Amino acid sequence: MLTQNLGYPRIGSHRELKKICENYWAGKTGYKNVLQVGKNIRHENWKLQQEAGVDIIPSNDFSFYDHVLDHSLTFGAIPKRYNEVILKKGNSELDLYFAMARGYQKDGLDVVAMEMTKWFDTNYHYIVPEFYKDQPFKLFSTKIIDEFYEAKQLGIITKPVLIGPISYLLLGKEKEAGFEKIDLIKNLLPVYLDILTRLVSLDVEYVQFDEPFLTLDLSEKEQKAYEYAYKEIKKAFPKLKIVLATYFEGLDNNLDLVTSLPMKVLHIDLVRAEVQLAEVLRRLNEKTILSLGLVDGRNIWKNDYDHSLSLINHALQKLGEDRVWIAPSCSLIHCPVDLENETDDKHLSPEIKQWLAYARQKVAEVVTLKKLITNESPASTTQKLEENKKALSNRKTSNLIHNPIVKERVANLDDSDAERLSPFSLRKVKQQSLNLPRFATTTIGSFPQTTEVRSWRAKFKNGTYSQKEYDTLIAEETAKAVKWQEDIDLDVLVHGEFERNDMVEYFGEQLDGFAFSKNGWVQSYGSRCVKPPIIYGDVSRPHPMTVKWTAYAQSLTSKYMKGMLTGPVTILQWSFVRNDQPRSLTCTQIALAIRDEVSDLEKAGIKIIQIDEPAIREGLPLRKAEWQHYLNWAVKAFRISASSVKDETQIHTHMCYSEFNDIIQNIADMDADVITIETSRSQMELLDAFANFQYPNEIGPGVYDIHSPRVPKREEMVHLLKKAKAVIPSDQLWVNPDCGLKTRGWDETKKALIEMVEAAKEMRKTE
Ligand code: GLN
Ligand code: ZN
After folding, report:
1. pLDDT tens profile 307-353
2. So what's the pLDDT on residue 347?
3. Which pLDDT tens digit goes with each residue over 237-264?
4. Which of this chain's residues are annotated to bind L-methionine (predicted)?
5. What is the C-alpha separation between 21 and 526, in angstroms, rounded?
6. Helix H segments across 268-321?
7. Distance CA 600, CA 610 (A)
8. CB of 504 shorter than 6 A to ligand 1
9. Which ligand has its closest atom nearest to the C-alpha of 445?
10. 76, 138 in Cβ contact below 8 A?
11. At 424, is the secondary structure helix, strand, or coil?
């Protein structure tokens, strides 16, 4: 029995990768230093896995920015617009690579970056390959071969990791009409064969092909492509040991296809889809090894050894020792690096810490599970088993986790708790008492989080500022923002969110049941890392979270001040969530906490309250068959959070997502009085989903893109609003930017909003 790892975090245990890359981009360090830091991280990772006792250690899991982009560079899938970057004297392969990731604006060249999107249902973003009709591929970067050789020099025979050819193509996007990306397999496959030839000449033993698409719904054409590609590989390299890695879901109806593919080892995800084990064991080919993905690569909880051992034993009975491997469920890049870096009890108490495992600890868990089965060093492993049992039983019964009041409140919920008092048509009449003009103007919530504002928070956190000093600064900044919004004549004001570090963290820090790590960084994209909150226990709200600042801002103006909250689904989606109860239940608990906040805001005299849900769409399960179940509980959670108020109180929600067509019914079911959405970059096309559906409630389609500092012209916004008015009745329309303005500077923000207000006034004249 062997252990394998599918991928180790590459950010470095102290985010060394982030630091060196950002220094390089800022021109503060040289090319060689960047390469050296990359090398150090790889060596550290390999050594650490070797010392932990992992049998099959991955290579090519390192990346300076993104592993999908690495593959595009490897295969020479480089869009033509980068030719000038390639040709420019002095530019290295790394410069080209970063140009593809981030765009290139230097010395008169101005080339835009490639698009970025989410990696399946994770919070990791990859650079989307761009495909053209009949596109040729050729081996451009030899990274994968170089890194295998590099490890070999250190005496470690690694298992190179490649995104499989079909998944690579499916991850990309057709940039012109007249072909399907999957047709490119014939052009692409020779490059894979080229790479394999080189690896084989260096005595590679195992090669891992990541094919996560095998856990998704596949068309017939895609299934055929799978058969074709893997048969060709087998034909060219009959002795190569292929590890076919699937993860994030079960194989389900693709199981026949998968078992027909030539491979030495099949890896399956038993954390996401434990139920598939029995069927896979029944149908697996006689000689195939099964790699059991037992240790959760997507979360931070300790493995339940007893449970894993029972699954391993089940597999062993059927397959025997030689045909069972043990592994994490997927690559560990979705976990923080090392729990040992959490040295601050204020952040993570020892009680909570004993329930957790980060990547390094997960690698050790995989090895311990093997030793428990093979009876290697029985004394120390038995002790580890006992410690594991103790930690898990402590977690089951801890007072930190279980709050009977919360459980009772959830149990007593009934359907009426998710219903506003009256239907929207009646609420709309009552809300006319708000006396808002047509094309009412507002913003999405945040105003610029300047370096200064962030420095106040840093100084407050490190004790330089007292609470009082910090509050005074925030109050002044808020007052300035309120005054300025009045001056330019916006209709519905916001307080600006200056007191918030992040839209989830700010709430998590005030809710019971949440913990915050100090070093739990996970790569989000490129050098950007996030530190998701950890939801470990029943969630409740010990005190109001936003009332003070909202009421203060309201007291400064006679206009309406919009209360600003993050919705339950978004809080859930952007956190590490407890795994001892269904996500839907945790979401409902958060919804009740937000509901209490909504009630308190209403009591404090706030008449308009926005509950942001930008993450509703990204929570969709990978398989369509499960969408409805998710949408049911997610929409219900939002409704629970929003439904305690009077008819006259206006509830807004906000989403910055580009696709509404397939979930428009569910968005309507959320029944917010007003929804603001991102639409400007698609020239209002995204509004069509709402128009076709005859969406009944009010809508604020974003009239300008907040991702760029460019100040939009008044006529452009009038033009967009006219387009909107052509498809949505004007008494349903609001005027607002695409999203919050926290990443913008004040200068461009002011100019843009002045124009926006004037654009709305122009629209009113035409009424
Ligand atoms: N209210 C938040 C803000 O303006 C919304 C952010 C978001 O949609 N991502 O920053
Ligand atoms: Zn947004």
Report:
1. 999 999 999 999 999 999 999 999 999 999 999 999 988 889 999 99
2. 85
3. 999 999 999 999 999 999 999 999 999 9
4. 444-446, 497, 612
5. 9
6. 276-283, 305-319
7. 14
8. no
9. 1
10. yes
11. helix
